[in-house]
Amino acid sequence: MDSFHFLPPDVARGRLVRKLRTKGITNEQVLHAIESVPRHAFVDPGLSHKAYEDITLPIDHNQTISQPFIVALMTQLLDVQPDMKVLEIGTGSGYQSAVLRYFTHRLFTVERIKELSFKARDAFTRCGIKNIICKYGDGTCGWPHYAPFDRIIVTAGAPAVPTRLLQQLTPEGILVIPTGDRENQRLEVYKKRPDRIERTTYTDVVFVPLIGEQGWKERE
Ligand code: SAM
User: Rounded to the nearest whole angstrom, what is the distance from the C-alpha of residue 92 to the centroid of ligand 1?
Assistant: First the structure.
């Protein structure tokens, strides 16, 4: 098992990036973003020694910070170009947002749990990351006020792709989302074309559920 307990964060990040390369991440900008973002600033201080292991870690409210490989893969699939307008649903710890911010200054992120949204904003401030527009609320309906978006990424598992999100994509826009049942999903990429929407299915993944009007119902 990897242990980065005694490594300085930059050395640990370098090791993580080498691991992501061996697992098939090829986009150099994505790897550079992973090498630049201090994941330890987005996890509980008690877990910071595990921040650069390629694993999911718990955050408050029974939610998770995604595995770095999945963050890198989703970012690679999203194919963000400079100045694109990007919407993320599921801010969580804020780590995926910080990685996306590396690619664009037009980044919007929605989190349904108020405390997590505010904690992520604190982490952005501590890391000196500016210009991420955050709100808390149900992201399954997108963010009509700022729509359309060139790219949309959903970082919680949905029963099916929310139609409201597809509607808020620009022509030629791309949406990356895990869909499936509450426990297991497949990563899917939707590309908007003039006459159709193309869907490509990638690897199996495990995300916490997307809860909301166009997602799962909250359990009692
Ligand atoms: N991107 C996150 C990160 O880097 O830490 C991963 C977050 S976690 C896997 C998924 C997050 O989606 C949780 O924080 C959860 O509260 C949030 N979520 C679930 N349903 C949501 C919804 N309808 N709108 C916004 N956020 C939602």
Answer: 5
Residues contacting 48, CB < 8 A, separation 6+ = 40
Which is the closest atom of ligand 1 to the Cα of 92?
14
Supply the ipTM of this predicted assembly.
0.99
> What pLDDT digit, counting tens, does each position of 88-114 carry?
999 999 999 999 999 999 999 999 999
Q: 18: domain CATH number?
A: 3.40.50.150
Tens-place pLDDT, residues 6-63: 688 889 999 999 999 999 999 999 999 999 999 999 999 999 999 999 999 999 999 9
Residue 113 CA: nearest ligand 1 atom is 16
**Helix pair angle (68-78, 28-36), 10° resolution:** 140
In a domain, 210, yes or no: no
Q: Is 107 in the pocket of ligand 1 (CB under 6 A)?
A: no
Does residue 218 belong to any structural domain of this protein?
no
